[in-house]
Amino acid sequence: MIGFITWNIDPEIFRLGPLSIRYYGLMWALAFYVGYIIFSRFLKKEKLPQEFLDSLTMYMIVGTVIGARLGHCLFYEPQYYLSNPLEILKIWHGGLASHGAAIGILISLYLFARKQKVPMVYVLDRVVITVAIGGAFIRLGNLMNSEIYGVETTLPWGFIFERNGEILPKHPTQLYEALSYAIIFFILYRIYRKADGKLRDGFVFGIFLILLFGARFLIEYVKEPQVEFEKTMMLNMGQWLSIPFILAGIGFIVYSYHKPNIYIPSEVKPVKNQDKK
Questions:
Q1: How far is CA 265 from the centre of its chain?
Q2: What global pTM score does this model have?
Q3: How far apart are CA 108 and CA 18, in angstroms?
Q4: DSSP one-letter code for 97
Q5: 100-152 per-position pLDDT tens digit
Q6: What are phi and psi of 105, to 5 degrees?
Q7: Cα 252 from Cα 24, distance rounded (Å)
Q8: How far apart are CA 222 and CA 159, in angstroms?
Q9: Is 209 exposed, middle or buried (0-12, 13-18, 19+ CB in 10 A)?
Q10: What is the gyration radius of the CA atoms in the chain, in angstroms?
Q11: Whole-number Cα distances in Å, 95 to 65, 79, 90, 187, 254
């Protein structure tokens, strides 16, 4: 063994009585904060009201948390959680799934777009740019928790996760995903800047689905199974769940070229103003 990295970071930053501040929670907060700042730039460029983003942020937070939690409970441990439904509410015990978060975000954005009376695809093309960089922060949180890592490796950047009792280097798949998501963010943001905000409906969303879930599919090959039943599967649960998203991404790109619509909101008013009319 020529080289490796010993990893033994305490996931808790500090504690004030019963209140515990952890790196994972901090990374989630950073994901939403940075996403909020980036989307604010979209607002200025496209002359959208601030209330549009404030409402969108609330929908995103609720959809992400509920979707990620239900995704883990129903995709990975359905027997346990259906037998103990109250355990689903105990998010602090851990267990969030990115595929569930994706579904939760889609549902929340559908409800948001319907309420704001804008095409859902218009919102998706912009939100996924912030989701990509947010995903990078969250995977760094997984690294600080010493969780969701890979199989044994002899590569010099292998991590020995001592907090979990590991004695051999493992693939730091959290870093692989974080780097992939950061690259995807820069690609999507460049597309947005080059188009000057006038995006072909569905194109950026399609690129996002293909790149993000394509990266996830490939990285799963060096990731340890999250639950026991995955060990007997040809493809693990993360890979099976990635395939429909990749196919959907191809579909959106085809759609964007066959129906090259570019939605430009001349004036999107806050919902509360619309209700007064």
A1: 26
A2: 0.82
A3: 32
A4: -
A5: 888 898 899 999 999 988 889 999 999 999 999 999 999 999 999 998 899 99
A6: -65, -45
A7: 33
A8: 13
A9: buried
A10: 20
A11: 11, 15, 9, 30, 35
